[in-house]
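Sequence in, structure out. Go.
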Amino acid sequence: QTAKATEDIRAKIAGMQHLAFKRSDVAHGRIRSIDTSAAAAMEGVEAVFTGAQIAELLAPMPIATPFPSPPHRAVATDVVRYAGEPVAVVVASNRYTARDAADAIVVDIDPLPAVVDPELAMTGQPVAIHPDFPNNLAVALVPSGTGVSADGKVDDSAIDRAFAAAEVVISQRMVNQRLVPNAMETRGVLAHYEPGKGSMTIWSSTQNPHILRSMIAAMTGLGQDQVRAIAPEVGGGFGAKINIYAEEYVAAVVSKRLGIPIKWVEDRSEAFVATTHGRDIIGYVDLAARRDGVSAG
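Output:
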């Protein structure tokens, strides 16, 4: 039997429209203006939404952590903070028209300094991406029983004693390079809200259908019993498809707003900028030990 992926769900749902995203081509900047008139006038275009209009339908996206986080809109409203961030959304009769219409949207962005060096970023340079996090530091995780000084360094006396008593001390800066998950099947979603039933079915190339159901219900104002999440055969994930993404939320709220099925499947270029990356970790590791290989602490 042939496997069925999200992309294979096509003509079965009458009235299905396709979604495309206009994405920022700069890493950081302030949106001056968005002109959607040319896109809206194109034959086959059902609707065009700016970030401000999506914000009327969709609250900031939740995050699965108790740590502080700045509000994260599915579609940028005033400032873009990474290359590939959505700034507008097009709904059209087919994916080709939707993409052409997205290309026709004119976005004027005033570029701001981009943050590309994690170590420099932690000094607030060259800029704070989010004003509430002046050193671009969201969370400082500290081992149990330690303290942190004003400059962010661990200063626990027990650790100091362990290193003072160590026979061997090794210190190393380690870089775990950035990587892009590159699944055989890119991400895709089909959201079908049925106004008469007051229910939604959402198909997604996801590794996490149960949480997808819960989050879509919460963000669309539906009960969990009104949302059915289906994960067809998933052509690879590597952890990148565990997240609930902006595109899934947008497809759901647009389907509910328009009362029609909405489908989006990312192309390979989108996958490189819009699907979460991994690693890119710089670690400073200090080891205190005895010569027999046992930890000095």
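Check: The longest helix spans residues 246-258. The CA atoms of residues 27 and 174 lie 26 Å apart.
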